[in-house]
Queue: 3 jobs
Job 1
Amino acid sequence: MTTQSPILSNLTSLHRLHRLVAGGAAVLAAAVGLILAAPGQSNAVTPNPALTGHLDSVTALPGQVKLSGWAADTATPRVPINVSYSVGSGAGAHTGAARAHDLRTDVGQAFPNLGNYHGFTVTVYVSPGTYPVCAWALDPTGGPSRPIGCQTARVPVDRSARGHLDVVRSIGANHIQVAGWAVDDDTVTTPVSVGIYLGGTAGHAYSAVSATANQSRPDVAAVFPAIGPNHGFSATIAARPGTFPVCVYANDSYIFGAATLLGCLNVTV
C-alpha cells in the first residue's frame, strides 16, 4: 500500500497534518500537549516545534516494508537530521534510525528555506503480516522527537521463484549450453538470477556459475501472459570432459527466500 504526500502550503498546515496517525492510534497533542513518542522516549513529552517532515509512502512487498519521506529541523534548515522508525508494535517491533539527507527537490520547491536534501528511504525485512509503520523526526539536540506519520503495511506471503530447465547440451570444445526460463511472480518486472551447477545439485557440484533470466521468451509469455516475455536464460559454460548432471536453481527475489530447483539434466562433454 502506497500513499503519496500532499503538497502543503505552509509549516502550520504541515504540523496539523502530523497530528493525524493512521490506523486509529490516539494522538493527544491538540487536547493535552502530549504526542505519540518515538521508541525509547516517554509519551508525556512536548515535541520540538522546529521539527517538521512527512512519512510519504509505505510500500509492502514479500518479506519487506519500504518507508519513504522527509524530515528537517527548521532551526538549522541546511543541516540533515535523523529519523527513527518502527514497523510493528510491542516487543516484536522492528525499530531503527536513518539519516534524512537524500535529494528531494519537491520539498525544496515547497519549502525553499529548507533546501533539497532532507529525504529518506528505509527497507525493513519482516515476515508476512499486517504492521503499523510510524516515523519520527529526531531532535539533533537530544530533545523530544516529532511524529511525521503512521501508515499500515500488509506484507504478503512470499511466492517461490519458478521456471524450467529446457536444455543442457554439449556444443564442443569442452563447453556446454544451458537454457531455460525463470521468474518470481512477486516481482515479475525484475529478472531473477539462476544458479547453474555442473556435476550435481548445490553442494555436490564441481563448478557453479550464475546467469540472469532476462532474455526474450515469447513462448513462455504466450502460456503465462501475466509475467511477460523477458524471463529466459541461456549460458555457455566451460565444462570438464565426461558425463555428469547439470542442475539449475531459480533464486527468489525475497532476501530470505529459498532457491527453487528447476531441474537436472545429464550431459556428455
Note: The longest strand covers residues 51-61.
Job 2
Amino acid sequence: MRTAQDDYTTVRTTVGVYPITAPLVRISGGDRYEFLDLFLAKSSEYVEPDTVREALALNQDGSPFAIVLHFEIGDDSWLLPRTPVSTEALTGYLAALDAPSDVTVEIAPEGWGATAFEGPQAWAAAAAFVEFDISGLTLHGVTEAVVPEADAALAHLARVGTTGEYGYLLLSNDPEAGHRAAVEAVLAQDGAEVGPEGLARVQAEAGMAVYAAGFAGLPVHEADLAWMVDWNRIGEFLGSEELVKPTAETARITALAAPVGAAFTAGTPVTAGGQQVGTVIWQAPSANADEELVVALLDAPFWVPGLELAADNQDGAATPVRTVTQPRVIARSLTTRIH
C-alpha cells in the first residue's frame, strides 16, 4: 500500500501520474475571446494559438471563484479548473454571464478528459506522445499528440504543471486510453500513479497550496492572488470593481514550517509574544519527513520570512512555527536536462 510520503517522493524524484477530475469546458465561436474577457482577470487579446495559461475568475463581489487553465487549441478555447469547483457550480457561473451571440459553451463535453504527470522525469514520459524531440515543446506550449494503441483518438499534450517540477497534461477524447498510456509511460521511467495528498504537499511547497486548499473565503489581496489580475482592466471583467489592491499593510497568506508530527486545526490563532498576529488556514499533508507545512493568514509585517511565531497544536500545546520562503524545496527539475 503506497503512502502519501511514497507519492511525494515519486513526484520529487521520478514522475507521478494522476487523473484530472475537474470538468473540462470547451468554448467555440467567433466571439469566444470577448466571452472569456467577461470573467477572466487577464485579457485574451494577446493569447497565442497552441498555448496554455493560468487565469483567475472572480465572483460578482470580487472574491475568487476559480483558477483555471485556458488552452487555445485550433478554433476552440478550453478551460480546466485548477482549484476545487463542482460541475454544477461551474455550469451556474458560466450560464449567468451575458454571453455574446456567437459563442457555444460545452461543459464536460462528452468523451473528453485529461491526465497529468509531473516530476523531474516527466519529460521522458511525455516523449511517448509526440513524434518530435520533446525538448521542442516549451513551457506553456500545446501540441497535437498521439495516444499509443488508440490511433483514432484525438489528443493534445500541454507542458504545464502544478508542482514546480516538470509537468505535462494530456487532453483526449479517449481519456481512458490516454490515462492507460500515461501510466505505462510513467512506469517505464520508474514512476508511479500518485494520490492527492502527496501531490498536494509538493504543490504547497511550490507556493500553490490553493490548488488543494481552495481560497478559504479570502479576498484576492489576502489570498496573494493580486499577481493574477490585470489592474489596467478594472471595470472590464466580472467582480473587478470590488477588488482591493494589496499594500505593505495588507494581511496575506504565508507558509509556516512546524515540527514533524505537529497538527493544527484551521482557525487556530498564530501568536507573536503572546499576541495574536494571524490564523491557521490549512495544513499540508504530512508527506515530507523533514517538517510540517502550514498556511496561515498573517497580519503585516509578520508575513516576512524567518520570524519565530507560535500556535497551539491539536493537543492544546503551544508549538513553535516559523515563517518561510517558497518554494520550500528546490525542484530537482531545475537541474535536470530535457534531452
Note: The longest helix spans residues 175-187.
Job 3
Amino acid sequence: MINRLKALFYNLPMMGKLLILLILCSLLPLMVISVYSFTSAKNQLLEQAYDNMNHMNQQINNNISSQLDSFHQISGMLYTNATLKAYLTREYNQDIDFVEAYSYINDLFFGLMAANSNVDGITVYVFNNTIPTDGVFVKYLFDTKASPEWVRKLDQSYGNVVYTGITLNDRKERVFSLARIMNFSSLNYPYGVLTISVKEDYLYSMIRQESEGKSIYVVDEKGDILSTRDKNLISGKLSEVLGVEIPMEDAAGRLVMDIQGKRSLVVFNRMDQGWRTVSIVPVNDILRETRRSASRILMMAGLSFLLALILIVFISKYLTGRIRNLTGQVALIEREDFSGKIEIKGNDEIGQLSHAFNRMTDQLNRLINELYKKEITRRDAELYALQSQINPHFLYNTLSVISSLAIRKGDGEISGIINHLSAFYKTSLNKGMRYITVGNELDITRHYLAIQHMRFRDHFRESYEVDETLFPCRTLKLVLQPFIENAINHAVCEREEPLHIIIRVFCEENRICYEVEDDGAGIEEEKMERLVTGQPEAGYGIYNVNERIQLAYGRDYGVSIRSFLGKGTKVKITIPL
C-alpha cells in the first residue's frame, strides 16, 4: 500500500506535488495547532470555572454556616435558660400564675426575634398541659393539630440540634427549622421541644447573586432541595430534578456529566451541618466565547490557506514552466541534437541547473566525439592483436622444430631445455589472458626452475609446500617467477653450498598467499628499497608484480618482503580468494 502511494506521488505532476506538500506542511499543522489550542483553552476554562464555582460554593457555605451557627447559639441560650425551664415545667392551678410566665416568655422571645430579624418564629412544644398555650410561642407537643409530625419524632436526638427540611408555616410560607429537645439538667426527663424557624427566602438571599448563568441548589444530607431559584423544585429530590444521581460521598468534588441532555460541570461542597451546595453550569456556556474564538481562528486559517493555495498555483506554474523548458531540452539531447541551449533566467537552483545542463551538453558533445575516435582506435588495436597472435604460434612451431632436430642429433639436454621453454611461454602467454589458475602458475614456476637447473646444476634446490585445493582458483599470471629469479641470481653465486628455495601456497584469512623463502645471504636495506620502488638499476620485476596485484585487487593486497643479512629472505604475496 505504501509503495503504491509512493508510486502515485512520484507520477503526479509538479503542481500536484506542490499542492500535496502545501496541505501537509501548512493545513495539517494548522489543524493540529488549532485543535491543541482549543483543547488547551477548553481545559483551562473548565479548570478556571471549577475554581470559581468551588470558591463561590465555599463562600455560600460559609455564609449559611455562619447564620446557622447564630441560630444554634439562640437555641443554646434558650436550652440552658433555667428560668425558662422553671416556667415551662411548673404546674399552673390559677390563671394569675401563667401571666407571669407569659410575661417572661413574651419578653424573651420577642427580644430575640427583634435582635435577629432573620428568625421567622420561635416555638416551644411542651409536655406540661397545665400551662395554657398561646398558639405562637407555646404549644402542646401531643396536639397533632398544633405540632408537626417531625417535632414529635425528635426523641432520638438527645438534645442535639436537628435541622428540618422545608415546611409551611401558618401563613403558608416556606420555612426551615432548627429543633432540639429541651432536657437541660434532666436528660431522661425532657420538658419540651424548641423550634426556631427561618424563611426560605432568607436562605435564598445568600445564593441569589451567584445564580446568574448557573443553577445553584442547597440540599440537605438526604438530597432534598432546601433552596434554589425555581421555588417549584423545593423539597424535591435533587436526583429526580436533574434526572441523574450525583455521587457526593466526598466533602467536595467536581464532575462533568450529562444533565437534562446537556454536558455540564457539577461542583459540590459540604457544610459542617451536613448540607451541601451544588452548582451546575452547562459546558457550552463556559466554552461559548472559546468556541467563537475558535470559529474566528478557523475562518482566518481558511482564508490564509486559500491565499496560500492561490500563491502556490502561480509559483508552481512559474517553476514548472522553467522545468518544462529543461525537459524539452533533454528530449532534444535524447534525439542526439546537441545544438540547443537553455535560456538562463536568474541564478536560483533552476538557473544553476540550466547552466550545468548547458555545460553537460557541451561535454557530452565533446565526449561523444572523443569516444568515436577512441572506438576507431580500439578497432585498430583489436585488428593488430589478431595479427600479433600469429607470432606466438610461429614461436611455438619454431621451438618444436629445434627440439626435433636436437633429438635427431642425440642431444636430449637441449631438447629438454627447449621443451621447458616452450611450455613456459605457452602457459605464461595464455593466449593474451591476464589470469590463469594457481595450478598453472606453479607449472610455469616448475618449467622455469627446470631451465635454471640446466644452467646452475646443483647450486640450488627447491621444495614445495602447497595446498592443492587452491589449484583451480584464479590468479594473476607470473607472480612467483620474478621472486624466484631474484633469489637465484643474487644468492647462488654468492655462496658455496646449495641455495634452498621453499615455495609455499596456502589460504589465510580468506586470501591466497604465496611465499618464496630462501636461506641466502639476505638483502641490504638500501638494495631492498630500490627493489620495492622499481629503480632501473635494481630491475622492475618485483615492483611490477606488486603494482599489477594492487591495480587488479586493491591496496589491501600485494607484496611484502622480510630479509635478514646472513639468514635469508622471505617474500609473501597475497591476493583475494
Note: Residues 381-391 have pLDDT under 50 and may be disordered.
